[in-house]
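[User] Could I get a sequence and C-alpha cells?

[Assistant]
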Amino acid sequence: MRFSEYISQTNKTQSQVASELDTSQGNISRWASGECVPEAKTIKKITEWSKGEVQPNDFYEVNE
C-alpha cells in the first residue's frame, strides 16, 4: 500500500504522522507525493509503524 493511501486510511494528518515518526511534516509530504524516497532506515521505521501495511517497495514506482 502506498504511504499516502495508508495515511488517508488512518485519517491522520501529515503533522500527526510526522510527530509519530519523529520527522518534519515537509518530509511526510514529499514521501507521500512521491517527490522523494526516505532513507532505508526511515522506510524500515515506516513499515514497522504501519504494522507492515506500507512495504519498502511501495515507495518505488514500477513502470511496465
In short: The mean pLDDT is 94. Residues 3-53 form one domain. Residues 18 and 26 are 8 Å apart (CA to CA).
